[in-house]
Amino acid sequence: MARLLVVELAVTPLGTAETGLSDYIARAVEAVKASGVKYKVCPTCTVFEAGDVETAFEVARAAHEAVLAAGVKRVLTAVKIDDRLDQPRGMDERVQRVTAKVK
Questions:
Q1: DSSP calls for the chain
Q2: 23 band by pLDDT with thresholds 50, 70 and 90
Q3: What global pTM score does this model have?
Q4: Domain extent for 32
Q5: CATH number of the domain residue 71 falls in
């Protein structure tokens, strides 16, 4: 059975001159997009799918470094990995399974 990890990635630039962070976050998302993984931008994080842990961390590292390359002096990056081995369920199916049960 193929693995399908669902990864939550939050890259937070610190010490910027402005309170708006979208320019920096866009750089992180561009790095995720360039990796070729399936992803979804959410209000406080980006969620993506990866076939293995190595890919998950490579994508996270690329996003982290993209924000540093944008000129930020400090970046806080949080990664949460859901690695389910019994059934490969992607992010869309997981959301659908929950929303179908909401009354």
A1: ----EEEEEEEEEES-SSS--HHHHHHHHHHHHHHT--EEE-SS-EEEEESSHHHHHHHHHHHHHHHHHTT-SEEEEEEEEE--SSS---HHHHHHHHHTT--
A2: very high
A3: 0.92
A4: 5-99
A5: 3.30.70.930
